[in-house]
Automatic annotation (TrEMBL):
Name assigned to this protein: Methyltransferase
S-adenosyl-L-methionine keyword on record: yes
Database matches in PANTHER family: DEOXYHYPUSINE HYDROXYLASE (PTHR12697:SF5), PBS LYASE HEAT-LIKE PROTEIN (PTHR12697)
Organism placement in taxonomy: Bacteria, Candidatus Joergenseniibacteriota
Residue ranges of coiled coil: none
EC nos: 2.1.1.-
A Pfam family reported for this protein in Swiss-Prot or TrEMBL: N6_N4_Mtase
One record GO biological process: methylation
Domain DNA methylase N-4/N-6, first and last residues per copy: 211-438
Protein family (similarity comment): Belongs to the N(4)/N(6)-methyltransferase family. N(4) subfamily.
Catalytic activity: a 2'-deoxycytidine in DNA + S-adenosyl-L-methionine = an N(4)-methyl-2'-deoxycytidine in DNA + S-adenosyl-L-homocysteine + H(+)
Length: 471
């Protein structure tokens, strides 16, 4: 049945009348198609008495799992302990996982001591979502010694989400820090500062939880003259050390956005093959292990004409196994520093004026496929497009936040930050790129004012002095 017609015929007033009249509701449901029944079940709202109990029980024989699930969900609203055996029956034997999960949830929603043994039994279920619903129901009784003991043992459960819930709710583990600085503030000596020096040495002097957002593209493995490593493992170990420090200096619940892509090391002769390294996929488990939470994967797509042609040989012979697509994409991986607080908490750390000024304008990206042309520079061979920086900064920070790039290159992120009323902190060891940044930032001094302060170029020695002055 067409939903528009259905909405006109079965309105909220009619549903309110039906749900308080057992006979009328039963008769109505027996003469409707599945679409109408689902619609009514979704709109029943609060059930203050048992008038709807018998009609809902009659629907549990339906072959439609959505109808059975919604019936259980609505029965739970009644709060009738006599329904416990019904919930247990469907939780144990229904062929639908959704019905089973909703049934265990219904047992918990009874909030009755008689449900405790049942919920404890479901802690051993093979479905982690069923176990999670059982935990949720038992948390109400977590002050009871026998319940607390059972829940504490769940820290050894193989499912990572269950471990996190038990760590927070039972063992009292939280991911917050003791940093007393306000969430929307940062050390002033980092404001619009560019440090020429080794990134690890520099980060040693950056206080915990100083940075609101990091967006960077690390040097690719042995692809440039400024990024030579003895082995791929050495390269990954270097990145791990840097990303661990970034985790330390990032504020609770804030974001780390990483741009990488697989890299090809050319073959040394025709007798050997080239080697392709899957950098984003090797880095991901390292980040998760150190305490970053994966949020999103965004694919940056460049015009095919702008990338190296790998099709030439295949174009001629068209033989299977020799196919090589042109690599037009790079990965923009979005991570959040793990916390037991929701995003709303982070937003709530700002006053309404800052939140309003930071709101994202229309025509924002609605998918995770971003079509952006590459940028070219006479000095740096791999620069961020300003459009890419603008999007990341806009979507993952507030005005006046501190934006960090540990591998700053030509400093595009810094320019984008100032343009968007943010502040930047950059590190770069190559003097030719520092000089390139000076050109751009001096040329763009009109971007800075008395409030923002001028860009501050320092070497590592002077940077250390700055950190001591603030102590």
């Amino acid at each position: 049945m067409n939903r528009v017609i259905l909405d006109q015929r079965v309105n909220a007033e009619m549903i309110d009348g039906l749900k308080n009249n057992t006979r009328a509701l039963l008769s109505f449901l027996q003469n409707q198609n599945e679409g109408t029944i689902v619609y009514v079940l979704e709109k029943l709202g609060r059930l203050k008495n048992g008038s709807s109990k018998e009609p809902l029980l009659s629907l549990l024989n339906s072959q439609n799992e959505n109808i059975r699930t919604l019936s259980i969900k609505n029965l739970a609203k009644i709060g009738d302990i006599s329904l416990l055996p019904i919930f247990v029956k469907y939780a144990r034997s229904d062929e639908s996982t959704e019905v089973r999960r909703e049934s265990v949830s219904a047992v918990g929603r009874l909030r009755n001591e008689k449900a405790i043994p049942v919920l404890i039994g479901f802690l051993k279920d093979n479905d982690p979502k069923v176990v999670m619903q059982a935990i949720r129901g038992l948390l109400i009784f977590s002050q009871r010694e026998e319940v607390e003991e059972k829940l504490k043992k769940m820290i050894n459960h193989p499912n990572e989400l269950i471990k996190e819930v038990i760590s927070k709710e039972i063992n009292g583990v939280n991911y917050g820090s003791n940093n007393k600085e306000k969430h929307d503030e940062f050390p002033t000596f980092l404001k619009n500062t560019i440090v020429q020096g080794d990134v690890m040495e520099t980060l040693n002097y950056v206080p915990d939880e100083s940075v609101h957002l990091t967006f960077t593209s690390p040097p690719y493995y042995n692809a440039r003259d400024y990024s030579i490593y003895q082995s791929y493992n050495e390269y990954l170990n270097f990145l791990e050390k840097v990303f661990k420090e970034i985790h330390r200096v990032t504020k609770e619940g804030r974001f780390f956005v990483l741009n990488t892509s697989p890299i090809i090391i050319p073959r040394i002769s025709r007798a050997h093959s080239s080697k392709r390294y899957p950098i984003p996929y090797d880095v991901h488990p390292i980040l998760i292990k150190m305490g970053w939470e994966f949020i999103d994967d965004i694919v940056w797509v460049k015009p095919e004409a702008s990338v190296k042609n790998r099709n030439a040989g295949f174009l001629q012979h068209r033989k299977p196994l020799g196919y090589k697509p042109n690599a037009v994409s790079e990965m923009i991986m979005v991570y959040r520093k793990k916390t037991d607080k929701l995003i709303d908490w982070n937003i709530g750390q700002y006053n309404w004026d800052k939140v309003k000024k930071s709101k994202v304008a229309d025509k924002y990206e609605t998918t995770n496929i971003w079509h952006i042309g590459p940028a070219f520079d006479r000095v740096h061979s791999a620069v961020f497009p300003i459009e890419l920086c603008n999007k990341v900064i806009t979507y993952y920070s507030f005005v006046e936040d501190l934006i960090f790039d540990p591998f700053a290159g030509s400093g595009t992120l810094g320019l984008a930050a100032v343009n968007l009323n943010r502040h930047f902190f950059l590190t770069e060891k190559e003097s030719k790129y520092i000089n390139r940044m000076k050109e751009d930032l001096i040329k763009g001094r009109r971007l800075f004012d008395s409030k923002n302060g001028q860009p501050n170029f320092v070497d590592i020695k002077n940077f250390i002095s700055l950190t001591k002055e603030t102590v």
